[in-house]
Amino acid sequence: MRTKYEKQLRELNHEMIEMGDLCKAAITYAVMSLKNKDEEIQDRVIEIENEINQKERYIEQCCMKLLLQQQPVATDLRQISSALKMISDMERIGDQAFDISLLINVNVHCDEKIEKHISAMAKSTISMVTKCVEAFVNQDLGLASSIMMDDDEVDMYFDKVKNDLVTAIKEENDSPASYLDILMIAKYLERIGDHATNIAEWVEYSITGKHRKHHIKNK
Q: Considering the entire predicted model, what is its pTM?
């Protein structure tokens, strides 16, 4: 019986890794479309977002099967219940990458400095998602805890984007409408960082049995 459970748990971990990879790809393509304005790239974000939704449903089924067939307790139960919570946040990450792609059109332009800040935000959020899944699969408490600090870096870059946009607006005679879209793109990336932090907290719970509540701002 335990051998069967361990096989099912390995499958769960594999699916979680794949869902994490899809989230990373969604963020990557969404931000890439800001620079390239390529409709094919934007279409790829839509495809990936659909794949993330499908993966969420499949993992839910895997978790329910484990709960019903194996009736896990203690650490095993926490691990499965945490996975169910994590995929909800991962699905939201896919949604927000999709939202970014919807904001990007030929009229959205940002200078090199702002583009670098947004790219840095994307890189940080991708790193956070990678660490989250790795921490869950390896039950690595130290790695999970480090993700909370990574969110501070994302927030820092968001503040830089806001400040740069304020400066740009002051320097323009007519404020380009695209500034609001750029701010929203940065805001969605900040929210992705919040969701990654939430995921890390569920990883912590799966290991320790204690969950510290993280409030996602302006969800």
A: 0.89
